[in-house]
Amino acid sequence: MKNIITKFKKLIGSINNISLKRKLIFLYIFCVFIPIVSINTIFYFVISHNVSKQVLTLLDESMERIKIGFTTNIEQCMQVIRTINLDSKLENALDSKYRDIEDYYDVYLNYTKEAVDKFLPIYSQIQKISIYTENNTIINGGNYYFLNSDIINSDWYKKLQSSRQNTVIYPYIESDKNNLLAYGRYLSVIRRLYDYKSINYTNKIIKIDIRLNSFLDVVNKENTKGIIYLIDDSNRIMFSNNQDIYNNYNEFKVFTDNYYTSKDIVISKNFAINSYMSGWKLIGVFPKNDIKKAMGSNKSIVIAVALFSIIISTLIILVISSSIKNRLEIVSKHLKDISDKKFNVIDIDAGEDEIGTLIKEFNNSTIKIKNLIEVVYEAEIQKTKAELMALQSQVNPHFLYNTLNTVRLRSVLKGELETAEIIKYMSKLFRRFLSFKEDLITIREEIELTKDFLEIQKYRYGDKLNYVINVDENALCYKIPKMCIQTLVENSSVHGIEMIDGIGVININIKFNEDELFCKIIDNGIGIEKEKLQQIQEALKKGKLINGSYGIVNIYKRLKLYFGEEVKFTINSKLNKGTEVELRIPIYKLEKYV
């Protein structure tokens, strides 16, 4: 049990490492898409099976109705025979001996003709009703015939005589095209009349000819697309709606396997053993495509339902996942901004769910932190200003001392004109210091201050120091913290140029670079050792003072206080190669002197 719990916890842990987007995709695939496809696939197969079963049932029922229709046609003929068999008046007329044609014709017109013809309008399948008798006084024709040798030798008569039954079914084809009224395929129902023996009894036989093509009406009522075959007890095709057989008046073809294929559904119905058509059968051949078409409509419905379900569920999942993912991404972005010291509130419609609550709490916390930072920030500015004033109070006397000492030493060696020149620069410096009432001064003022300082330094180092200043005219009116460039130049001269044997050069470049003020100070001095450079860079990053980097760190802190975290301050140096100090300030952060 513990192993299961441990594995489950590992599984949960691994899931926690998957992004929310992928989790939602997995959730959609395994909990929505696959179940919908699986359920609809199963649903389709179940429906297809039921449809196939239903189609087979309908075909079987249709075949049963066709069989009943065929049987009914035969049974109606038997009903006619039974009615005639009970007609004693007709029996007497058939047994009577007639003197001449007029005598027979009189009876024929008065009764015997109507006794048979009255059934023809009622039963449309009957082509002809013929009665044969041994009474040689009747005249052949008009449904009544004498049993002569031709009739006795005919196939149908022989079949009746050889049969143990009183009734036989006999098919035949009338192929004489000259006999337009009789041309076709027929089924004869033949029976002996008046089985009981009267005094004047003569052998009498009735034969009703059914048009086999009349069975087509029975088949057409079912509106089936299959081929129907009526097979006799000799396996011959008596009737079919197959046009090749339907229009064949030459022979009865034998039914074989060639009349259907593996792509067909074959349904066979046997006629009852005790019926007149015992041994006969009805065979229906139906194309399987009909079932496929029936299933095809269901397939379209299932696919449509599946697609509809997938589209609706996909849209719902997309809307919900977007609501979750987009807001969480915004929260994540703002959390990263906090690590970059950007405390911005999330300005969106947060909603009322758990994520909305999280966003509201985040905004409240951000506002509180921002307010606290502003309080601390103001305190830091005041503290830094105090430190700067204290630093200036220490720097100015120290600088004055070095300058005066230099003047003293150089005065011994040179005339008073040079001494007067250096004193001029010193007085200008003091005058500038006294005139700077604000901490921010224009770049023009800062450059003039720096030039005065460099001229004094040149006086100090002689020909060992040169400098080049390139300033974009458009940048001169923008304000920066006072003495930030001068301090960097002082570091270059004191810690860089002073330590080399050759001529030192300090380059000062100030210009606009796209949307930034770009300032670079380059010297070819002694450079900075790698470890010392790393210490300075670390001090800049943490804002801590270390020995030998007070001026640089203070400049960076002052710049950050005025211009924020967007100030870029970089130092690159190689030992014995020189040092580059690069400063970048966004233009929109700068104040312009008007």
Essential attributes:
18% strand; Beta-Lactamase; five-stranded mixed sheet; alpha+beta; Heat Shock Protein 90; 3 domains; 15 helices
Fold and architecture overview:
With 594 residues, this protein is of the alpha+beta class. 54% of the residues lie in helices and 18% in strands. The protein has 15 helices and 16 strands. The protein has a five-stranded mixed β-sheet, sandwiched between helices. Strands 11-13-14-16-15 form a five-stranded mixed β-sheet. A four-stranded antiparallel β-sheet has the order 7-6-9-8. The chain folds into three domains: 233 residues, Beta-Lactamase; 50 residues, no CATH class; 144 residues, Heat Shock Protein 90 (2-Layer Sandwich), CATH 3.30.565.
Topology at a glance:
Elements: H1 2-16, H2 20-85, H3 88-95, H4 101-117, E1 126-133, E2 144-146, H5 149-152, H6 155-162, E3 167-174, E4 184-192, E5 204-211, H7 215-222, E6 227-231, E7 237-240, H8 243-246, E8 264-270, E9 281-287, H9 288-339, H10 354-413, H11 416-435, E10 440-442, H12 443-461, E11 465-471, E12 479-481, H13 484-496, E13 504-513, E14 516-523, H14 530-542, H15 550-563, E15 568-574, E16 578-586
Helix pairs in contact: 2-7, 2-9, 9-10, 10-11, 10-15, 11-12, 12-13
